[in-house]
Amino acid sequence: MAASSLAERLKSREKAEKARRIPCPYRAGDVVYVISGKEKGKFGNFQKYVPKKNQVFVEGLNLIERYVKPRQDINREGGRMSLECPIHVSNTAYYCRSCSKPSSLRRRVQVSEENGRKSKTVTWVCRRCGEAREPRKKT
Ligand SMILES: [Zn+2]
Question: Which residue segments constitute the domains of the chain, with CATH numbers given?
Fold first, then answer.
């Protein structure tokens, strides 16, 4: 058995971690629906994505309570505070606003021809009702 160095082992672990990564399926302005777990059946606004862990933060969901001490330097009151915890992407789905149901997205490719030149436009639409997803917000 060939002895592998620590650097090699770390590298292969990093590689495996990268292979397990799921690209973020949501973007700002999307509504996320929870399929499984404690918050099953609820939905909320997409907040942020943790690519290393494939987890999403959903506004107002998966809350935990913490008791914090008052601090004057950051102007924080003490007492009960609720914090959002991330949810794994596989437990969530895209939620369609127009049909008010959890759904998924489908690519719709439109080919238009102008002056003999073909151009493709890709829009993401709801698999249930065909309504286009809201355009990406420019920041
Ligand atoms: Zn829909």
Answer: 23-126 (2.30.30.30)
